[in-house]
Amino acid sequence: MKKLLVMAVFLFSLQQVSAQKWISLFDGKSTKGWHSYLKPGQPNAWAVQDGALYLDATAQSGRGDLVTDEEYDEFELKFDWKVAKGYNGGVIFFVQEDPKFGATYVTGPEFQVIDNVGYPDPLKPVQLAASLYDLIPCPPEYIKPTGEWNTSVIRFKDKKLEFTVNGKKAISTTLWDENWDKMVKASKFGEMCCFAKTSKGRIALQDHGGGTWYKNIMIRKL
User: Fold this and answer.
1) Which of 13, 143, 170, 202 could cross-link with 163 by S-S, CB 3.0 to 4.6 Å?
2) CATH architecture, domain 23-221
């Protein structure tokens, strides 16, 4: 019995280690492991530039959000990002890929990527970089100057969602409690039937005009 117990503990430990293993979502050379949202193949406007995934703002074709081939539930996602002057993008998660949803943001919350200073339209606090878009703002002083790399982490476990940017905790909230429901209802997502209704989905890099770069994209299941 004691040997069986030891073996069970050992196997459980192996499972825990495996669950915590970091996996690269970007090999620095290609868009392998990603595809166009609701379209076959990969959008050629997304290219690799100096070891980073780059969305070319000048591309006339091959546009669209890039989504992971796999779906993820509880996870920790870390990545580096930067944005060109005047541009906008985002990292969206819990994305449900179904023809009845015309865009990734219909089902998935967004980590905002944007030029806080040079974006041509006025921005509300909940629209600034590293905010949980239209829900919870990130202090603008956490963000490096436009064109510089920022390091960020999105963590979701036991209904708790956290954003960290450049080593500072930017967002911390609990999904699906009373406060969450009130926030969503007061946001642009309040009228969307299926926004953030499930925790398992794809991760998307948003095409919101271009001028965005991502690298060192890693994930681990929690």
Assistant:
1) 170
2) Sandwich (2.60)
